Structure formats: structure tokens, C-alpha cells
Description:
The complex is a heterodimer.
Chain A: E1 2-6, H1 7-11, E2 18-26, E3 31-35, E4 45-53, E5 64-71, E6 74-81, E7 84-86, E8 88-91, H2 94-97, H3 107-110, E9 114-118, H4 122-134, E10 138-142, H5 166-177, E11 182-186, H6 194-203, E12 206-209, H7 214-227, E13 231-236, E14 242-248, H8 255-258, H9 274-280, H10 289-295, H11 301-320, H12 328-331, E15 338-342, E16 368-370, H13 391-400
Parallel strand pairs in A: 1-3, 1-8, 4-5, 9-10, 9-12, 10-11, 12-13
Antiparallel strand pairs in A: 2-3, 2-4, 5-6, 6-7, 13-14, 14-15, 15-16
Chain B: H1 4-17, E1 23-26, E2 34-40, E3 46-52, E4 63-65, E5 86-90, E6 93-96, H2 110-130
Antiparallel strand pairs in B: 1-2, 2-3, 3-4, 4-6, 5-6
Amino acid sequence: MIVYLNKEELMTLPDTGVADGVACEWEGEEVVHLHARPPRHAYGKVSPCRFIRGGTGELPPAGFCVRYEREGDGVKATAFLDGKELPLNFIPSRSELFSRSKGILEVGALAQKRVMIVGLGSFGGQIAVELAKAGVGAFALLDFDRMELHNLSRHICSVQDLGRLKTDAVADAILGKNPYAEVERFPVDINREPVLLDRETARADLVICATDNNTSRFNLTNALLRRAKPCLYGRAVTRAEGGDVFRYRPGGPCYNCLIGNGWFESRDEEITDEASARRSGRIAAYVSPEDASAMVQVGLSADIEPICNLMVKLALVELSRGLDTGLAQLEDELVYDYYMWANRRERRHANWAPFPNAAAKPTILRWYGARIARNDGCAVCGGHAELDTGDEIESRLGDMGDTSGINLDEVAGQGG
Amino acid sequence: MMTDDRYQLELGVLSRKLSPNLYRFFDLDTDEPYVVFGARTNRGNVYTLRIELDDFPESIPKVFVTRMLKDKRGHDLDSCSATMHTLTSENGRTRICHFGFDSWHPEVSIYKVFIKSRLWLEMYEQHLRTGKDIDYYLNHQD
């Protein structure tokens, strides 16, 4: 039998003689994990496991048992089943967990970083787990949705998570990779919770915006500007034929500066979920169920992976900025505000060159970066904000006659 | 939620475009602020428009005509209609569909929302005269 024990859990047990834990056994596989503290969600066949401190206490005649003794900063332990000793393996300690990343990442520094992820769909979930694997120590997860059947094909979570809040399911996925991570869950609509959004933005070292609509991006952008925090926005375009990533850094162009820029086309955004798209207004209320169903065009998981991957790398560069790591050279290379990717030569990418012999022409499966100028007239971040006053509409109305309104006192009684 | 700075910007635009007695803001210090405009169409008919600002300018504001309008056949304009550019009414008020989701951005001023709604009113009156749907006169936005 293969037995694993979390040694750091033993260090947290009280100094009493006996404690009750659990054994989670993968039935039929001869594998068991012993926990001094029951996990939040137990797995496999769960049975009691007694933890006995010191070498003198009597072993129970049946079932799992661990005898342990603290030794300085460490602990010595032996496991038993039905009184017979079992070979014991230890779940890596916090310091051992990411030891293989040393030299590339500054693991100790990342453990002190906090990342806020807004939107836990196929992008947000994937990025959360990748950052957990890299050793990021704390997460704030914001999403009010639950895992549904249509999410499964691209999402990091699985069938057993159906119906769960995405904040809970993704938190477990993070803890599965880094049991020492601090994960706070906020199953809220950020558009309705400006105070919470502002507070959590202030606490974060980096924000990941992986939502599927501009309203939430605009609300988040306001919080980022107020709190001077960096953020990565990512999305796929229709049927994930491609995608893009926008990096906001305090003082640089904001998401609203990107809108209307020649590089960016907000209309092409992928619609992955009819209910969500109707809620946000992306699918107009008068669109029939049949037409709405046709508008939901979801790309492959393999098509969004490259976009998630770049976001993770940009995130690690942002979180490691100024540290002496193997990622430092990327600071001089990932210098763009906006990155574009195409999976297929369709629609807006139809006139891109075929992959073979594309040479310097834009083609599929390559990243292209662009610097975006900060718009001084931006209504969100600009120093001299200018509003869109609809001159084209005004002239159209002017052609028809008067553009003015009427004194409200003349229409009193018609209600407000 | 509209900031004080944004409110001042909006007032600046409105004061350039309209006389101050044509519009009035309400409940600005609450979660449900709104502004009311008086609108007179080219044929001289009078309407009031209510623009709700609870998540403005981050999202498209709801625009209502402050009474229930009827179409050429006498039916209430109270439901979602692609051809008439309306959304589900609330509190007995016809709701105008005035902006496409993907066209919206936070630089759009309240004044622009107002004149787009004014344009809708003109097209509504054309509909009453000709029987043609508003969609005949107004293009859809994405």
C-alpha cells in the first residue's frame, strides 16, 4: 500500500496525546492519504485515523493510526494499519513544493503575492491553477456563476464540480496544486459590489480580468485606476478563431483607451454562454432562442490555451518584476500593451498569410504585440477627458429640423 | 456609478447643447440616480424621457418614455421588439433600445443618449404616419 501523510499538518496538532484524523483511501488502488485535519472536501473512502503523539501510547488493534514525535523544527512519524507498520511518504512541505522552479521563479517572493481573478470561466480557472502551480501564495476569486454542463469541455474543473459555485470549485483546484495557498472566495457580481471590488483591488498585487463583458471590465478599470494596480485582460474572439491580451500598468493606457484603437475590435468577442450573454446584454433581449443559440459559438480548449498561457507568463513577469529571476529577461521582451493571436485564418484574420512561408507577414499561431498610446482625452483615465456627444446623430436630427428639447415645466405632470 | 468629475463633464456638455430647463437630475446621491429630459418632436409633440444612471457610464443606461406608447395598430409598445427597437417596459413606461452592447463605451455622454432617443421618437412618429416599423428607418447596432 502507498501511504501519504501531510507532515505540516502534524505540526499544527495540539500538544495532547491523541487526535482524530481521517484516512482517504483510493479504493482498489492500494493508495491512502492520511490527514491529521480532515480536508475541506474529503475524497475516496473515508475512514478514521488516530494520531498518537509519543512512542508509548497503545496502538489501536484495527484501522489506520499514525504515531508521531516532534523533533526540533521537524517531526518523525510512522503509520500503521491494523497494528502493522506501513511504508510512509510525505506530502511536500511548503518549502519543498515548488523547489523545481528555483532558478526560474523566485518562489519565496511569489508565495507573498496576492492575485485577484475576476471571472472564473475557462480563462480564469486555467490561469488560477497555473499561478498556483508557480507558487503564488494568495488568491481572491470573484465570480457569481456556477459550473454548468456547457462549461466542462474547456474548464479546468470536472464533472464532479457540476452545480458548484465556480469560486468553490476553482479554490479546490488551486488547493489541489498548492495546499498552502490562501484562497478567498467572493461569489458576487462585481458590477453590484463596487465597495468590495475596490477593497479587493487594493489588496491585490496583480489583477486578472477574465470576464466576458465590457461592463465588468469598465467597472474593474475604475478600481484599477483608483488603486494603481496592474491588470491583464484576456479574451477569445468568435469561436476562438483568435484572441487577445491587454496589459494595464498604472500610468499607462487603460482598457478604455484600447476601445476604438485600430488594433482592437470589441464586436468580435466570443459568446460562450447564452444566459450570461443575455444577462449582460451582449445578446439583445429581442433575439429569439433559436438565433441566440446560433450566436453561441465556442472554440476549442486548445484554441484558448495559448491565450491563457501568455496571460500566465505576463502575470509571472509582473509579479517577479524587479526580482533576480530567470524571467527577468522577459521584462525587456514582453514590453507591449496589447497582444494578438490567431488560431485560424477566418473572418478578421482571413487575409492573414498562410502559415507556410509567411515570413514577416502576419499569420496564425504567432503572437503579435502592439504599443497602445494613452488617450489624453480618455473619459476614464485621460487628463482632459472628452465625451462622445454624438455629433453624427445631432446632424441627422438637424437635417430633420429642431434638435432641442422642451422646457420641463411645460410637461409637468407627465412623471419622471 | 457616475463620479462627481463625470457629472461635471456631463453638465458641461448639456449646458453647451441645451438650455438648463430642458433637463433635470434626480436622486444623484442614491443608488438609483436618473435624469429627465423634455423632448419636442419636429411635429410638435411633447414627450419626457427618463434616463436611468445607476451603472452609468460603465453600462448602457435604460431609457424610458415616461408613459406607455402605442404602435400604429393601437398595441402597447411594452415588449422586446427588434423591429420597433424597444425592450421590455417597466412601470408602465415604454423602454427604448438605443444602443448596441458592443458599441457602448464610457465616453458616450448622456447628451448623446438623449439625442439618440430623440431620433427614436422622430422615427416612432414616422411609424405612426406610415405604418412602417421603426427598423425601416433606424439601423441596428451590434
